[in-house]
Design a protein that fits this description.
MetI-like fold; 72% helix; 2 domains; mainly alpha; 15 helices
């Protein structure tokens, strides 16, 4: 087990380097350091001297990937990519273009993101599994048919419709909760009820259909037919056998998501004015703040790789036949 974890961790290093390289290339494909300087200086007619000064202060006055004027290892080391990316592996995110500490911003915004993402994840998982079990239990009936139709319809509707419709109906017309904003402590509940509700409803269609497929696949296997032949009630077969044996594919989707919860929701946080990491990333993209974008992509990559590792380890807990060498 330990050797497997070490090996997978070492595999992650070239993956993270490649992700950083792709992010770097995509960002500077549409932006140059001069464009970033003009955006941050915030004036239409900025002088060339001000641009050069801004670039020199932030380390953007060097070549992007290859410094032909440098000697030896400096050809790679004395570049924007090397100086901005290597520190990430020590989780030194540096400062944003507005000179705010990125690590401190992440710590501050992690709480609101988790306050939104964790309830959506837990409640959504419970609702989706329960709904899918109900459709599988009443398979080939009108309840199953209309359940599938409802899931397909909900999948076909954009998440923006749920957000805008929920804000208009629940906040603007009924005045039950604030339309946007956020406060710390217990007061955060009134700002999170609507985003959590929308997040759960928006995921019912795809989640329930997927879990229903898993349950129906398990119900067609020999051990289920054997359990029925022994006279077990259908409810016992569903909960004691089908649900338990469907845990492995369920864990594939669930465990991977857990480390990514703190990253927040880009769209929901932006629409509801929640100061989480999702809205932080959107604001950084709009402001062409490469330091923040690079840091958030790196953290997301690390967490996704950690999620895959946790998924493999969790297989051994639900299926003793799986062993990691």
């Amino acid at each position: 087990m330990l050797a497997y974890i070490v090996r997978r961790t070492l595999y992650a290093i070239p993956i993270l380097v490649g992700i950083n390289l792709i992010t770097f290339a995509l960002f500077f494909l549409v932006n140059t350091p001069d464009d970033m300087a003009r955006m941050q200086l915030g004036v239409k007619r900025v002088t060339p001297e001000a641009i050069e000064k801004w670039k020199a202060e932030r380390g953007y006055d060097k070549p992007l990937l290859w410094n032909a004027a440098a000697a030896g290892a400096g050809k790679l080391g004395d570049t924007i990519f090397f100086e901005k990316s290597v520190k990430l592996f020590a989780f030194d995110f540096g400062r944003a273009e507005d000179n705010r500490d990125i690590a401190n911003e992440i710590r501050t915004r992690m709480g609101p993101s988790l306050a939104l993402a964790v309830p959506v994840f837990l409640v959504g998982l419970a609702v989706n599994v329960t709904f899918a079990l109900g459709m599988a239990f009443f398979r080939a009936t009108y309840l199953d048919l209309w359940g599938v139709i409802l899931c397909v319809a909900m999948m076909s509707i954009s998440s923006l419709f749920y957000i805008i419709g929920g804000q208009y109906l629940i906040s603007k017309l009924w005045h039950l909760v604030p339309i946007s904003g956020y406060e710390g402590g217990i007061d955060a509940m009134k700002f999170l009820v609507l985003p959590v509700l929308i997040g759960v409803i928006g995921g019912i269609g795809a989640g329930s259909r997927w879990y229903r497929t898993l349950f129906l696949e398990e119900m067609g296997k020999d051990y289920v037919r054997t359990a029925r032949a022994k006279g077990l009630a259908e409810s016992t077969v569903m909960f004691r056998h089908v649900l338990q044996n469907a845990l492995i594919p369920i864990l594939t989707g669930v465990v991977v998501v857990i480390p990514l919860l703190f990253m927040g929701s880009l769209i929901v946080e932006s629409f509801f004015g929640i100061p989480g990491l999702g809205s932080y990333t959107i604001d950084a993209i709009q402001a062409q703040d490469f330091a923040v974008v690079r840091a958030m992509v790196f953290i997301g990559s690390v967490l996704y790789i950690a999620g895959l590792l946790l998924t493999d380890i969790s297989y051994t807990l639900v299926d003793p036949r799986v062993r990691l060498a």
